[in-house]
């Protein structure tokens, strides 16, 4: 039974191949196209693949021959004219079917049809099938928009397909038309209902878009034939493209994003989007909003905001107060810990910051250290040390000579959100003193540094930022063991030792 | 600048020294060169070869003594084999008579050449030197010159032939005697080494390999005088001292002193003579501690030997060595080798020995009966499967006995390679220990009993043991990490084997060290689990609690701070507390402010039943345990109670922290939120006590931080740079070793050349001076003589003139 179908299949595939070949050879067999279109209505993977290949073969040849070319001069009534019109109609059918196939469940078929579609676009670009004026490019805009509509689907997540599509995005005209389509589409969809899949698809497409690194104002890497005079050609203007890119992003960010999408957007924003925008300040609304959300989102928004403040003179009131609020116990456990500390270090680098502010940060961070895991501490303690090192006024935190009275409690107010009112400068970093007894020898040593006069050079944080437990563990186990002291009181059993504490709560039963 | 100066000074200094060495003393020169110079025209000279004649250091008496001794020694050489050396020696003309008699002693030359040589010697002695002694002898013996030369020759020949025969006889006899001695000795030797070589006895004689026997003798354990056995009190005292020393070491390691000092290079003062008398106390401590390490090792092995005493396999050997010891002791006692007394001594010894061996044998019999089914010796397992095969079928106690026997059979002192075998055995046992806890149900009792065994092995070879345990920990950590990577940084609590391995680390290695190759990473691993594992169900709670408990044990002595454990315990209290549904409380990961599991430990109804304070490992910690079985108030109460107990302990340990208040105030706050009214009374009291403790602890006042006062650094002073071998030139850096060496040699050659030229110049200068002096003396002499002659002549002339004048005067007068 199974054999039979397989044999059938093989015969069928052979058939399709032959038909395509015959069709290519002479227009007599043009009706073969109809057969293949009919066959392509199945769900069978191998048949579909064969059909798509056949389509590719037939139509690239026809486009190359110019058989599809219709000009207004051609008489509709003539035999030739009728044939051409009929052929064009079939071409549209095939195109429609191929776009449908982008939704297909077989990944290979999907990819194959996408590449076939793009090859057809390329072929059309070289040999247009309609009349094109000299000023226009050969780019088949309408056909291409159909492809895009299929790709940026509302119902399916096409992330993998779009990733494959990336190779075409290197062509300047493709990029241009994709952006144009996206802007138009987003505007349309905003009125209607949209799905998460749709957003994901748009994001995937936008994420792929990048611009050539070499700053050339005139872009000339096109998939299709371009008009001779590039200067008036919109597609080849980098500025124009960037404008489109910015507006596409701004439009996109007005959607209500899911939290995971939100995060991934924030992650790429600062190095994949902002450099290509005509005016990154357009993002400031989005970023400030995100910064006010709190938690991990705020952490991520920090980076973009920083670029805006730093390079584009964004005036951001109470930036440091908000940064201060971000210092909470969860910071040490967040996934983006390294990035946060990197940025926080960057913000606090300036030596023009007031002492109260730096002291507040140092004190709050050191308070957080009391609940921090070891890898977090291995960043935080040098961080605090650097802060004090940079701002000599904060030396009082570790070396207070003016008052010798004993205090009953720490004057620092942990819950005060305003760094100027938290009385950090009246306090001392007893937390670091406590951390001198931390179980990890490196952290303990680091905390011990406050006992001695400050060193002139700062501690380089960049190596510590990515620290995690595994690295700390590796560091301890890497060295070859030369001496291993052992206990000296012989045990009688697992729990019958001198200083056993497990016995407090456990029995060996 | 200063350096330059110092260098030039050094060069000068060294030049001085060198020159004084090289320069020949002018007096010396006079003694040697001048002598030669004076003798240059002489054709022969007198050489004084008397002993010590040229040695100025010897006094005359010493010289005489030495000469006498030498003379005696010369005589002794000849008399080496003389048995009756005490007899007075007769001499004639300074030559000993015995020597003359023995002149024809055949001992000296080879057999082959001897005939000719002997006769020749005789002839020579008779004919050439006239041999007044021999002659006179012959005169007295033979009775005159009657015999002709021929007769005498014949007589000589017969005599020498006879002597040759006698010598041969004697040789054979001595050969026979040595043979006999060997045989006797062999029988004696087997008596001596009766125990161990019994099996060998049957083999050895067949082989009859004398070399082997000699070698064996050479390598036989030499006995040493043993110390007297110590009394119990002394032993106790020693043990106490040992423990005290270990404890002080531990404290040092806890503060990380050693580690810090190793890196520091201390500045040496210029006055430091580097003789160890400086106040360099740090170095001393290092040395002391090193010594301690060794001590520890020795003690470790000492203990092992102690353990070996009740071991039957080693007993035999021990006896043997003791016997040997006693006999050797006897030998050394009567060094004069009186045979009889030795025999007596050994008899007595044997009688003494008899009793204990019998006793031991009895004991052995009993033991044998008890362990009839087990063989005595086991091969050390080559891999883990071997060990499993060996142990699997046995009962628990038998397994322990087998392991014990393997260890004792392979004591490092017994054979080479045993140490490695035991080391691999250790790693297998650690693995076995882990696997035991994974059984269904876990064999915790056997695992428990394995601990002392593992401890013993760790004491023997600490570093390999540490490596083995650390490897296990590394594997577990890697496993945990891979789970974390898969689940976005969230882990899963490991099985009971890992948990008990972590506990084993604490038993085998000191947890209080500032940095320890095994315990520090282990601690990191524990904390990683506490920080990264989400708490979803009862087992997670239990395992977390166990790990917190381990943390407490790890830091109990050193009082170090473990934020992860405190966080976790705080989280447990959070799970047990009543929550306000409208408010999200800030909790520290791994706990979440919202979710299914946040009420995991909350007691909703009042419970009166008694709390089971101790949790059972096998019930609670195994991976495949029944979660529903723990879903009851009893378990929850036990957990809460344990949490409170642990917090109390932590609070006591962290008592002196300046941030005590900040650490424990969240705990206190959380305690206030517990539904205490639902708890049994005992638990209520416990919680109250904890809260009181914390409140008490919070009242301690704190001082503002101050940096340590820095000691003013000592003024750095230049000290003389002392080079052991000074080459008199700058050390050139770079260049290969060969080139350097070559340059050195060239330099040395030049230096020596210059020195030699200088010396020659000085020699010639001196000789020139001497010659000049001689010349001058000669000239002076000549001048003096000429002057004398002139004077003489002048006188003569004067006289002659006077005479002439007188004559003319007289003539004038006459005229």
Rg of chain A, Å, rounded: 33 Å
What characteristic shape of chain B results from the CA principal axes?
elongated
Please mark out the parts of chain A with pLDDT under 50 across 5 or more consecutive residues, or reply none: none
Mean pLDDT over all positions of chain A: 79
- Helix-and-strand structural type of chain A: mainly alpha
Q: What share of the residues of chain A does DSSP label as strand, in percent?
A: under 5%
Q: Give me the oligomer status.
A: heterodimer
Largest sheet of chain B: 2 strands, antiparallel
Q: Count of DSSP helices of chain A?
A: 20
Tell me what portion of residues of chain B adopts beta-strand conformation.
Answer: under 5%
- Contiguous low-pLDDT stretches of chain B (5 residues minimum) are 5-14, 105-118, 133-144, 197-204, 259-266, 272-358
The whole-number mean of residue pLDDT values of chain B reads 74
Please give the count of helices of chain B: 28
Keywords summarizing the entry:
heterodimer; A: 509 residues; B: 815 residues; two-stranded antiparallel sheet; elongated; NOP14 (chain B); ribosome biogenesis (chain B)
What would you note in describing this structure?
The complex is a heterodimer of chains A (509) and B (815). Chain A has helices spanning 2-25, 32-39, 45-65, 79-101, 107-126, 141-151, 159-169, 172-191, 196-208, 238-253, 259-273, 284-293, 295-311, 319-326, 337-347, 355-369, 374-390, 430-435, 441-448, 469-478; one strand at residues 506-507. Chain A is mainly alpha-helical and 509 residues long. Chain B is mostly helical and 815 residues long. Helices cover 66% and strands 1% of the residues of chain B. Chain B contains 28 helices and three strands. Chain B has helices spanning 2-22, 26-38, 60-78, 97-101, 111-127, 132-142, 149-192, 198-207, 210-219, 232-254, 257-263, 281-308, 312-333, 339-370, 384-392, 396-409, 418-437, 444-460, 462-486, 496-508, 519-532, 538-555, 563-576, 617-620, 633-653, 660-672, 681-698, 737-814; strands spanning 91-92, 95-96, 615-616. Chain B has a two-stranded antiparallel ribbon. In chain B, strand 1 and strand 2 form a beta hairpin. In chain B, helix 16 (396-409) packs parallel to helix 18 (444-460) and helix 19 (462-486) packs parallel to helix 21. Classes of the chains: A mainly alpha (509), B mainly alpha (815). At the A-B interface, helix 18, helix 20 and strand 1 of A face helix 10, helix 18, helix 19, helix 20 and helix 21 of B. Strand 1 (506-507) of chain A pairs parallel with strand 3 (615-616) of chain B.
């Amino acid at each position: 039974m199974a054999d039979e179908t397989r044999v059938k299949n093989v015969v069928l595939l052979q058939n399709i191949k032959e038909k395509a070949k015959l069709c290519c050879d002479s227009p007599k067999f043009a009706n073969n196209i109809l057969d293949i279109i009919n066959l392509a209505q199945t769900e069978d993977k191998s048949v579909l693949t064969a059909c798509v290949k056949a389509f590719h073969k037939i139509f690239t040849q026809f486009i190359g021959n110019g058989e599809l070319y219709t000009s207004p001069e051609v008489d509709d009534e003539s035999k030739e004219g009728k044939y051409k019109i009929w052929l064009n109609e079939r071409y549209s059918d095939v195109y429609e079917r191929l776009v449908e196939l982008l939704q297909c469940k077989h990944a290979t078929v999907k990819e194959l049809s996408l590449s076939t579609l793009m090859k057809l676009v390329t072929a059309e670009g070289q040999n247009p099938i309609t009349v094109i004026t000299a000023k226009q490019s050969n780019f088949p805009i309408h056909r291409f928009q159909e492809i895009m509509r299929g790709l940026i689907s509302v119902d399916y997540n096409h992330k993998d397909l779009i990733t494959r599509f990336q190779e075409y995005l290197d062509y300047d005209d493709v990029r241009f038309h994709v952006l144009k389509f996206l802007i138009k589409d987003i505007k349309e969809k905003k009125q209607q209902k949209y799905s998460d899949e749709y957003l994901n698809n748009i994001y995937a497409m936008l994420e792929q878009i990048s611009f050539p690194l070499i700053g050339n104002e005139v872009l000339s890497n096109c998939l299709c034939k371009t008009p001779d005079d590039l200067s008036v050609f919109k597609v080849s203007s980098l500025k124009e493209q960037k404008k489109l890119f910015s507006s596409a992003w701004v439009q996109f960010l007005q959607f209500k994003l899911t939290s995971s999408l939100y995060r991934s957007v924030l992650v790429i924003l600062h190095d994949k989007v902002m450099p290509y925008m005509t005016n990154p300040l357009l993002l400031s609304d989005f970023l400030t909003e995100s910064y006010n959300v709190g938690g991990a989102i705020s952490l991520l928004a920090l980076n973009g905001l920083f670029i805006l403040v730093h390079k584009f003179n964004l005036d951001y009131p109470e930036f440091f107060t908000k940064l201060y609020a971000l210092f909470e116990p969860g910071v040490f456990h967040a996934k983006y810990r390294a990035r946060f500390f990197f940025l926080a270090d960057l913000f606090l680098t300036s030596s023009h910051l007031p002492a109260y502010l730096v002291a507040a940060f140092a004190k709050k961070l050191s308070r957080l250290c009391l609940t921090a895991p070891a890898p977090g501490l291995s960043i935080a303690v040098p961080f605090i040390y650097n802060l004090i090192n940079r701002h000599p006024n904060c030396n009082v935190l570790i070396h207070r000579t003016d008052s010798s009275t004993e205090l009953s409690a720490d004057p620092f107010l942990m819950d005060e959100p305003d760094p100027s009112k938290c009385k950090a400068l009246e306090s001392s970093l007893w937390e670091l003193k406590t951390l001198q007894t931390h179980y990890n020898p490196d952290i303990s040593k680091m905390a011990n540094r406050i006992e001695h006069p400050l060193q002139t050079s700062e501690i380089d944080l960049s190596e510590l930022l990515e620290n995690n437990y595994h690295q700390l563990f590796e560091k301890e186990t890497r060295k070859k063991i030369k001496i291993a002291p052992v206990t000296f009181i012989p045990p009688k059993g697992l729990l019958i030792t001198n200083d056993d504490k497990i016995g407090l709560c456990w029995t060996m039963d | 600048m200063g350096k330059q100066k110092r260098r030039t000074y050094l060069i000068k200094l060294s030049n001085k020294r060198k020159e004084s060495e090289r320069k020949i003393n002018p007096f010396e020169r006079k003694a040697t060169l001048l002598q030669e110079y004076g003798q240059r025209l002489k054709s022969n000279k007198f050489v004084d070869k008397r002993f010590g004649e040229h040695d100025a250091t010897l006094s005359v008496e010493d010289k005489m003594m030495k000469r006498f001794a030498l003379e005696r020694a010369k005589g002794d050489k000849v008399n080496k084999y003389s048995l009756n050396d005490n007899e007075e020696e007769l001499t004639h003309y300074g030559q000993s008579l015995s020597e003359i008699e023995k002149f024809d002693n055949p001992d000296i030359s080879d057999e082959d050449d001897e005939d000719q040589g002997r006769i020749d010697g005789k002839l020579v002695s008779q004919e050439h030197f006239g041999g007044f002694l021999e002659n006179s002898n012959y005169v007295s013996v033979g009775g005159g010159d009657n015999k002709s030369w021929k007769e005498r020759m014949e007589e000589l020949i017969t005599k020498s032939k006879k002597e040759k025969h006698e010598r041969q006889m004697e040789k054979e006899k001595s050969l026979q005697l040595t043979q006999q001695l060997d045989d006797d000795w062999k029988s004696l030797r087997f008596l001596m080494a009766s125990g161990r070589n019994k099996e060998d006895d049957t083999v050895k004689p067949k082989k009859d390999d004398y070399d082997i026997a000699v070698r064996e003798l050479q390598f036989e354990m030499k006995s040493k005088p043993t110390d007297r056995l110590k009394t119990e009190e002394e032993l106790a005292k020693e043990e106490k001292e040992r423990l005290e020393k270990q404890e002080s070491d531990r404290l040092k390691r806890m503060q990380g002193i050693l580690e810090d000092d190793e890196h520091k290079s201390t500045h040496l003062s210029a006055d430091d003579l580097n003789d160890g008398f400086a106040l360099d106390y740090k170095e001393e401590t290092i040395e002391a501690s090193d010594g301690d390490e060794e001590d520890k090792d020795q003690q470790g092995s000492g203990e092992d030997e102690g353990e070996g005493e009740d071991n039957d396999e080693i007993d035999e050997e021990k006896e043997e060595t003791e016997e040997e010891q006693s006999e050797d002791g006897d030998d050394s006692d009567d060094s004069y080798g009186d045979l009889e007394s030795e025999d007596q001594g050994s008899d007595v010894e044997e009688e003494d020995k008899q009793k204990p061996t019998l006793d031991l044998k009895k004991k052995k019999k009993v033991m044998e009966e008890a362990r009839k089914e087990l063989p005595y010796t086991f091969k050390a397992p080559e891999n883990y499967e071997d060990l499993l095969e060996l142990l699997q079928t046995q009962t628990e106690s038998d397994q322990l006995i087998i392991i014990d026997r393997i260890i004792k059979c392979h004591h490092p002192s017994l054979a080479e390679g045993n140490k490695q075998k035991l080391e691999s055995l250790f790693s297998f046992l650690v693995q076995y220990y882990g696997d035991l806890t994974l059984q269904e149900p876990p064999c915790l009792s056997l695992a428990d009993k394995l601990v002392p065994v593992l401890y013993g092995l760790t004491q023997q070879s600490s570093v390999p043991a540490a490596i083995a345990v650390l490897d296990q920990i590394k594997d577990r950590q890697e496993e945990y990490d891979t789970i974390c990577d898969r689940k976005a940084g969230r882990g899963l609590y490991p099985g009971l084997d890992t948990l008990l391995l972590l506990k084993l680390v604490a038993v085998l290695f000191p947890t209080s060290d500032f940095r320890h190759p095994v315990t520090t990473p282990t601690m990191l691993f524990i904390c990683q689990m506490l920080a990264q594992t989400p708490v979803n169900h009862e087992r997670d709670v239990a395992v977390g609690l166990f790990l917190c408990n381990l943390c407490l044990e790890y830091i109990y002595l050193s009082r170090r701070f473990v934020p992860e454990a405190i966080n976790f315990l705080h989280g447990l209290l959070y799970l047990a507390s009543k929550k306000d549904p409208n408010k999200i409380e800030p909790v520290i990961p791994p706990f979440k402010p919202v979710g299914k599991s946040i009420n995991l430990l909350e007691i909703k109804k009042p419970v009166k039943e008694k709390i089971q304070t101790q949790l059972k490992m096998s019930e609670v910690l195994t991976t495949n345990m029944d979660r529903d079985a723990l879903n009851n108030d009893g378990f929850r109460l036990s957990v809460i109670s344990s949490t409170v107990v642990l917090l109390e302990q932590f609070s006591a340990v962290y008592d002196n922290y300046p941030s005590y208040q900040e650490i424990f105030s969240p705990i206190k706050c959380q305690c206030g939120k517990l539904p205490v009214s639902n708890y049994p009374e005992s638990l209520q009291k416990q919680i109250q006590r904890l809260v009181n403790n914390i409140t008490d602890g919070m009242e301690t006042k704190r001082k503002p931080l101050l940096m340590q006062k820095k000691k003013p650094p000592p003024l750095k002073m230049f000290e003389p740079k002392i080079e052991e071998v000074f080459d008199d030139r700058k050390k050139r850096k770079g260049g290969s070793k060969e080139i350097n060496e070559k340059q050195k040699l060239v330099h040395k050659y030049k230096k020596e050349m210059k020195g030699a030229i200088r010396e020659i110049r000085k020699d010639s200068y001196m000789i020139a001076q001497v010659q000049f002096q001689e010349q001058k003396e000669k000239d002076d002499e000549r001048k003096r003589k000429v002057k004398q002659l002139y004077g003489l002549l002048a006188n003569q002339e004067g006289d002659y003139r006077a005479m002439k004048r007188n004559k003319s005067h007289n003539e004038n007068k006459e005229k």
